[in-house]
């Protein structure tokens, strides 16, 4: 337990906390012990990050729908203890008065789909059963993937189109985003990159099946594999492909 908490009783009590932010006046806030701990943890996380820009904290949103500018989202409890979706959209960050799964479902229903169907389709196409990416908007090419189980409140949903670079940091991965920020995730580089690739694969397969519906026959019954042989010179024999086309 942090040293500053041991002086408070175990019961929920009202405490007065003063938050000091750079270039801002002190804010006097009356909150519960639980809210104080939550705020302290969030402040600690923000202080440990190095950013190249200043993030804009916007008021809570109520009618937000996932757009292609959305970079990531995760679950976060508001001051009343209600689980909401913390969204990073460009250089702005705001809470949406819906859980992450509800926000996904809302965005899908708005265009004639739903989350359950999207998840089932993803599992069937990829042949996976857990932690599958989800196509949120096929018209805008939006596909998000979860860092962990989607049913966990702190699961982060990433938009792979906004991931610029990934770097190994021990057992963690440094993820550089399109808005100049980066985030450290508790997952090894190989596994995180595999999630990115899986999301892109889902989007590609869905697009191909959507534009060429009868192409599924080819995917289910692929042609017999043929090896691309090497010549004595050590080069691959690409001329054999030209002969078959003739």
Describe the structure.
This protein is α+β, with helices and mostly antiparallel strands. The chain has helices spanning 33-47, 100-109, 115-126, 189-211, 216-220, 239-245; strands at 14-19, 27-32, 56-57, 70-77, 83-89, 92-96, 134-137, 142-146, 156-158, 163-169, 172-177, 182-185. The strands form three sheets. A seven-stranded mixed beta sheet has the order 3-6-5-4-9-8-7, sandwiched between helices. A hairpin with a 5-residue loop joins strand 4 (70-77) and strand 5. The termini are far apart.
Write a concise synopsis of the structure shown.
This protein is an alpha+beta fold and 246 residues long. The chain is built from 6 helices and 12 strands.
Question: Keywords, please?
Answer:
single chain; 246 residues; alpha+beta; seven-stranded mixed beta sheet; 6 helices; 12 strands; disordered N terminus
């Amino acid at each position: 337990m942090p040293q500053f908490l041991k002086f408070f009783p175990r019961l929920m009590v009202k405490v007065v906390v003063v938050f000091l932010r750079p270039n801002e006046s002190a804010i006097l806030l009356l909150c519960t012990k639980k809210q104080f701990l939550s705020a302290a943890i969030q402040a600690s996380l923000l202080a440990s990050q190095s950013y190249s820009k200043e993030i804009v904290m916007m008021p809570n949103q109520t009618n937000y729908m996932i757009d292609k500018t959305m970079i990531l989202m995760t679950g976060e409890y508001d001051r009343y203890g209600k689980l909401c979706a913390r969204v990073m959209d460009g250089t702005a960050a705001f809470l949406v008065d819906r859980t992450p799964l509800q926000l996904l479902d809302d965005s899908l229903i708005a265009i004639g789909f739903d989350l359950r169907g999207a998840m089932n389709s993803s599992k069937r196409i990829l042949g996976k059963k857990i932690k599958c990416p989800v196509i949120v908007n096929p018209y805008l090419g939006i596909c998000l993937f979860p860092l962990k189980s989607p049913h966990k409140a702190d699961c982060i949903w990433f938009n792979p189109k906004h991931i610029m670079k990934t770097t190994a940091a021990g057992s963690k991965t440094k993820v550089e985003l399109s808005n100049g920020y980066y985030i450290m995730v508790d997952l090894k580089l190989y596994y995180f990159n595999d999630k990115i690739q899986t999301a892109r694969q889902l989007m590609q397969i869905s697009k191909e099946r959507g534009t060429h519906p009868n192409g599924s026959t080819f995917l289910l019954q692929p042609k017999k594999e043929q090896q691309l042989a090497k010549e004595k010179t050590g080069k691959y024999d690409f001329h054999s492909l030209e002969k078959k086309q003739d």
